[in-house]
Amino acid sequence: MDTIRSDRIKAGLQKSFRSGKSAKASIICYGYRVNSKGKLQINPAEATHVRYIFERFAAGDSLGKISDALFLKDIPSPSGKEVWSKETISKILKNEKYIGDVVLGKTQTNDGLQIKVVDPDSQILMERHHPAIISKELFESVQHERKQRSSSRVR
Fold first, then answer.
1. Cα separation of 91 and 73, whole Å?
2. Considering only CA atoms, which of 132, 130, 106 is closest in space to residue 54?
3. Angle between helices 44-58 and 86-94 in degrees, nearest 10
4. 116 touches 33 (CB < 8 A)
5. How far apart are CA 103 and CA 124, in angstroms?
6. Fewer CB in 10 Å around end: N or C, the chain?
7. Is the pLDDT of residue 2 over 70?
8. 152 within a domain of the structure (yes/no)
9. Which phi and psi angles does 115 have, rounded to 5°?
10. Containing domain of residue 126, as a range?
11. 17 exposed, middle or buried (CB, 10 Å; 0-12, 13-18, 19+)?
12. What is the DSSP letter of 74?
């Protein structure tokens, strides 16, 4: 794709992000479904599992221990597998959608590869976009705990 066309596409995405009308804001993640009006709504059964994951991590359980517990409870992963991967659980714990917010522009595609955007000024935060599954306090507690655990591994 030529550079000019690529720049136009990126500018168009940014414009839709800023207007708050981006379809990307309603991309489904585990714990949600889309209603007939195209809005995210809570999937009650999956939301229970999301809450469990956040609460167990906040209580000190490791990703592996959470995965084992979900397996023992006979709860299949979002992809239908018997065992939840640690990566899947980690992604759930990082996802701000569970507090009802959406961050647009977290990634971009360069030469067919999706890369994380490191410039927060190019990202758009849509607060209270949809119903929250967990409290902001629990989410922030988990983010603090994740940071603490990762910094203790680096030492």
1. 20
2. 132
3. 90
4. no
5. 6
6. C
7. no
8. no
9. -125, 150
10. 3-143
11. buried
12. T
The tokens 């306090």 sit on which residue? 137
| Strand partners of residue 108 | 115
pLDDT tens by residue, 77-124 = 999 999 999 999 999 999 999 999 988 776 666 777 766 766 677 777
DSSP SS3 for 62: coil
In a domain, 115, yes or no: yes
Separation between Cα atoms, residue 152 and residue 154, nearest integer Å: 5
Instruction: Provide Rg for the chain, Cα atoms.
Output: 17
Number of compact structural domains in the chain: 1
Average pLDDT over residues 45-70: 98
Integer CA distances (angstroms), 140 to 15, 19, 54, 134, 146, in order: 29, 27, 10, 10, 10
**Is the CA virtual torsion 55, 59, 63, 65 positive or negative?**
negative
Measured distance CA(119)–CA(135) in Å, rounded:
27
- First-to-last CA distance in the chain? 44
CATH number, domain containing residue 44: 3.90.1750.20
Q: Which of 67, 65, 31 is nearest to 51 (CA)?
A: 31
